[in-house]
């Protein structure tokens, strides 16, 4: 029973883990704005209000590379199973 669960159940959970990691990263904008926690998400929101386009573009590219990197980490693990 354990081999069956690992073979068919774990790949789906890994894909879900990658999606949850992306949701966790993008959710930091809301949490930092509501609770006034200093961080990259709050800096992003204030740069939107100030129309600082270079900061908006830089943080967007940073988060997109981070999400792509996390998906590239999960992909070989997913293919090994």
Secondary structure topology:
Elements lengths: L1 H34 L4 H10 L3 H28 L1
What can be said about this structure in brief?
This protein is mainly alpha-helical. The chain has helices at 2-35, 40-49, 53-80.
What this model shows, in words?
The chain is an all-alpha fold and 81 residues long. It contains 3 helices and no strands. The radius of gyration is 17 Å and the shape is elongated. The two termini are 16 Å apart. The model has no long low-confidence stretch (mean pLDDT 79).
How many DSSP-defined strands?
A: 0
* Main sheet: strands, sense, barrel: none
Cα-atom Rg, whole angstroms?
17 Å
The portion of residues assigned to helices is over 70%
**Span from first to last CA?**
16 Å
Average of pLDDT: 79
Percent strand: under 5%
Q: Helical region count?
A: 3
**Order of SSEs, N→C?**
HHH
Low-confidence blocks of residues? none
Helix-and-strand structural type? mainly alpha
Any key phrases for this structure?
81 residues, mainly alpha, elongated
